[in-house]
C-alpha cells in the first residue's frame, strides 16, 4: 500500500509562485505514474499534470501549460509541482495521486494541500 503526503500549499498573491511536494511511502514509487489534481469548492476534481514512471514524459491541462512544471525524484520518492504566475482561478485543494496499473486509473491519493491565490 502506498501512502502519499502533500505539502507546500499556502496563500499567495496573483502572479506569485508555489512549489507543491508529494512524498510517498510504502510500495515501489518508481512503478507509479504520478499526477496532480485539484478541486475547487463546488467544482469537480480536475487533472492538472502527470509524469511517467521514469520521468521522461509529462502532460498538463491546457490552462497551466507554460506556468507549471511537474518533476519527480524516484530515489527520494517525491513528485513536485512548480507553479508560477499563479492566478485566482488556480485556487483549489491540490491532490497528489499515483497510478499503479496500465488501466490509467489513479489508485492512491494524498489528503490534499490548499492553494489560495488572492487577486
Structural overview:
With 119 residues, this protein is an all-beta fold. Helix content is 0%, strand content 51%. It contains no helices and 11 strands. It has strands spanning 3-7, 10-13, 18-25, 33-39, 46-51, 58-60, 68-73, 78-83, 92-99, 108-109, 113-118. The strands form 2 sheets. Strands 2, 4, 5, 6, 9, 10 and 11 form a 7-stranded mixed beta sheet that branches. A hairpin with an 8-residue loop joins strand 9 and strand 10 (108-109). The chain is globular and about 40 Å long. The termini are far apart. The model has no long low-confidence stretch (mean pLDDT 96).
Give me the number of helical elements: 0
Instruction: Kindly report the average pLDDT value.
Output: 96
Helix content: under 10%
Please state the CA-atom Rg, rounded to the nearest Å.
Answer: 13 Å
How would you spell out the order of helices and strands? EEEEEEEEEEE
The profile of the biggest β sheet is: 7 strands, mixed
Which descriptors apply to this entry?
0% helix, 119 residues, globular
What is the secondary structure topology, with strand pairs?
Blueprint: E1 3-7, E2 10-13, E3 18-25, E4 33-39, E5 46-51, E6 58-60, E7 68-73, E8 78-83, E9 92-99, E10 108-109, E11 113-118
Parallel strand pairs: 2-11
Antiparallel strand pairs: 1-3, 3-8, 4-5, 4-9, 5-6, 7-8, 9-10, 9-11
Amino acid at each position: 500500500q502506498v501512502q502519499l503526503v502533500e505539502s507546500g500549499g499556502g496563500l499567495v498573491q496573483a502572479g506569485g509562485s508555489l512549489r507543491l511536494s508529494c512524498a510517498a511511502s510504502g510500495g515501489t514509487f518508481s512503478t507509479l505514474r504520478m499526477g496532480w489534481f485539484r478541486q475547487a469548492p463546488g467544482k469537480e476534481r480536475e487533472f492538472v499534470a502527470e509524469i511517467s514512471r521514469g520521468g521522461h514524459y509529462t502532460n498538463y491541462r491546457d490552462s497551466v501549460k507554460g506556468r507549471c512544471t511537474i518533476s519527480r525524484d524516484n530515489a527520494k520518492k517525491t513528485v513536485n509541482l512548480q507553479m508560477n504566475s499563479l492566478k485566482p482561478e488556480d485556487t483549489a485543494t491540490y491532490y497528489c495521486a499515483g497510478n499503479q496499473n496500465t488501466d490509467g486509473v489513479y489508485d492512491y491519493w494524498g489528503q490534499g494541500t490548499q492553494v489560495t491565490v488572492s487577486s
